[in-house]
Protein: Magnesium transport protein CorA
Amino acid sequence: MLWKPGMGKPQAPIWIDLIEPDDEERRCAAEITGLRVPERGDIESLAMSSRIRTDDDAMYLSIPYFADTGNSDAAPVGIVVTNHVLMTLRFEASPAFDLASESCDAHRWDSSADALATLIEAIVNLAAKRMEDVSAKLKKLSDRVFTRTRIGTPALRNCMLEVGRLEGEQARNRSSMLGVQRIVSFVRAKKPEWMSDDVEVRLRVVEHDLRTLDEFDDQVTNKLQFLLDASLGFISTDQNHVMKVLTVTSVATIPPVILAGIWGMNFKRMPELDWSFGYPMAIAAILVSILLPVLFFKWRGWLEGD
Structure:
C-alpha cells in the first residue's frame, strides 16, 4: 500500500511518499512509522560517509543529486527502509516515483523491500530511456555536423550549444545513477534478514544493469567530446577558408597598387602623360594585373571550395 499526504491516516502502509512535506505531514509520517523525518538540509549536508548508513533496524539511504527529467534541476532524495515500511522524501516531481507507484495496481507489494526494489527498478529503467534519448539526439546532431554541404560558423556554434545541453542532461543522469548504484551495492552488501531472496535477485539484476549503463555513459560521453572537437575543427577550417580568401585578395591587389603608385608620382617628365590613350591603357593594365593573380590561384586550385 502506498500512502501520500492527504490520503488520511492508514493502518499499516508499506510505502510512504513525502513530496516537500509541511510540518503537519512530517508529524503524521513520523507518528505512523516511528521514524524521524529529516529536513531537506539534513539530506544535502550529509557527509559522504553518512549518506548511506544503518541505524538499528532501519537503513538510511540518500541521493544528494537526483534528477530523472531532462529539464529538471537536481534535488536530494532521502530513503528510509525498515522491515515494515519504506519512506521516501523528495522535493521535485519524479516520473520514476510515479511509475513505481502505478505498479502497485498491477503488482501487490509483499514487503517494504519489495517496494524499494520496485522503486529502484523504475529509476534505472527511466534512466536507461533518457540515455537512449540522448544517444538518439547525438545521432541526429552527428548527421548535421558531418555533411558534405559546407556549414558556416553560426550553425556550428549552434551545434556546440546543443552538445553542451546534452552533456548537462547526461551529467544529471550520471549523478543520479551514481547515487542509485551506491544504494544498491550497500543494500546487497548488508542484506538484512527481512529482505527476501527474490528481492536480492532483483537488486543483483539492477546492479548488472547499472554497470551496463555506466559503460553506455562512457560511450555517450566520448561521443559528446568527439562532436565538440569536430565542431571546433570545422570552425577552425572555416576560419582558414576566410583567411585564405583575404590572403588571395591582398596578393591580387598588390600589382594594381604598384602600378597606381608609379603613375601617380608627380614627376615633370612622364612619357605616359602625353599619350593619347595613356589613361585607358593604365586602367586596362591595372585590371589585367588583378585578373592574372586571380586566374593563377584558380588554376592552382587554391580557390576551390570558396
In short: The mean pLDDT is 82. The first helix runs from residue 23 to 33.
